[in-house]
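Troubleshooting: if your tokenizer reports a length mismatch, compare your output against this known-good record of 715 residues.
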Amino acid sequence: MRAQAPRMVAALPSLPTIAAVCTLPTCVGFWKSEYGVSYAYGGATAIMGALVLRAAPTPLAAAHAAAVLVYGVRLNAFLLWRELNIPRFREFREKVEARAVSAGGRLKRTPFVLSCAALYACLAAPAIVTSSTAATGVLTTALVGAAWFGLLLAASGDLVKSYVKAKEGADVLVTSGPYRYFRHPNYTGEQILWTSSTLAAFASAARGGLGALLANGGWLGASLFGWAGIFFVLAQATANLEKKQAERFVPENLIAALVRKGTSELTVVSNNAGVDDFGLGLLLKTGQIKRMISSYVGENKTFERLYLTGELEVELTPQGTLAERMRAGGSGIPAFYTPCAAGTIIQEGGVPIKYRKDGSVEIESSPREIRNFNGRDFVLEQAIVGDFSIVKAWKADTRGNLVFRGTGRNFNVDAAMAGKICIAEVEEIVQAGAIPPDQVHLPGVYVHRVVQGQSYEKRIEKRMTGGGASANAAEMIAQTLSPERLRIVKRAAMEFEDGMYVNLGIGIPTLASNFVSPNVRIELQSENGLLGIGPYPIKGQEDPDMINAGKETVTSIPGSSTFSSSTSFGMIRAGKVQLTLLGALEVASNGDLANWIIPGKMVKGMGGAMDLVSSGSRVVVTMEHTAKGGKHKILPRCSLPLTGKRVVHRIITELGVFDVMPGREHGHPDCEHEGLELIEIADGVSIDDVRLATGADFRVADGYRSRWLKPMGGQ
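Known-good structure output:
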């Protein structure tokens, strides 16, 4: 390669000039503490880059100095824009200033300020070397090019991060743009920039032989000092950010590792995918999951959007069935029969698994085999065995025995059993024998590897609190509800009988438990593995390990118990839970129920509803009588996919109460009528009002079996 001809240039900056350029801007730190030093970092490197650029004798040396100049200008422009446009950074600056002020007088900052000035001077040293040695050569060119790459990577990282956080919120984890390939592209870019810059100085000096190396020995030493200093600063910043992200975003460190590794085309079996920026939601955002096998989409907007736009395959499975499929897989049982979903689209097949971009269905579910036992239809479900299971426990011993805390067993136990290789992430590892044998929740035979996580946020998705024993929860709730919804809640509470085991759906059903008569004691069951739910905790006493199926913080009552999801649905399937209260999108006059999906528009998933209504226990629906615009919700037959066939016993709305009469043809010889019977009516509501708001025919209780139309209870 032909050497580049030197050009007439200005002299390189003198030591006094360098000292002044790097020290004066840094003195801002005496005024505005450490945050001001960030501006000095950009200012000093920009000025030094400009001074060296004037003296650069070759285009390559000029390119090196220009990188230092552009970095400083870019950094200060970014800092200023961020502070002016993003309020939380102004708050950050104020916190830093308050911390510095509390540390003592401004003169105490002198060592910090002077060390920063020295560091900034040393960061410019490599560019001085390449100019003083008239840099040329392939190696030096490649290293200067790498420095520019680092500069552009850092700039793009800062830009993408600020844009995403401004658009989606400060607490979102950025995974797009350069963050798809680098964990921290801004810090990684700076490390590449300053490492390449330092190496370029040595490469340029080495071309001049031993004499050039000795002549520039002081600046080369300064270059190494600057590289070591900035590398230490960036490593500390990276470590601090990793700690914050581990605490805020990824208490499941194993999921964080999957995000970093980039493993894709995953089929994930989980009851749900959490929320958008947490847990499995992170893998959804990065596009690493090909198929989800779940029961509930819930509040995860990314999950729902990816499914409806055809970017994600979703196999929706009733929650209890999903838990039992895992338990069966871990127990060596290839398949089993369950009454859940018999007569629904889940059993009949045709549930969209994958949509095309135009909204048509590309993949749909296959029909399940059905068999009749003792007059009831049962659906054949196949077991699930995963290549890996990743679970979270509270404690493990060195033999792999696991202990879960609160409601933490849920799907973890069943998932652990179902994996060919089970990796358990725990908060504490103890020696074998430290956990008494009768306190082991999952034997170590199912666990292959144990990882102790460093930190856990244990994010509470729905932080619910009460006023304590002295507060009247019913009065507090009544103040938040409309008169119509309050009427439904109060009437629903009258369904509870002393000694009942009850499961309550999200919303109105859950609120009804606060209006139970003082003479009635019920035990509330939650599908995630809690029997004996207490009131919401007092503010400040919320426990992230004690939540209900709706992910709300709860407490337990004396005599309560916790267990796995498969055990929970075992008691439901066996009819041990005597009453289920839940909401509905539609109810048919024969008791058919639809409450989990509007095809192509809304997908929440069936959760545990199909299991609950197929158990043979009493099912009471609580809902507003009509949908928006007065659209009928009580119909001759449901237009939406069913949750269960002929499962509803009673409907409670703001207008009145209906009983669903099964009729003689369906095994009830003492029941003459089939269809809906209005048994209670709200104050101020006429029968004509009810007929107008109801899409199905109904009869009015008129004395048949002493059933007379009565005023609606709970008003």
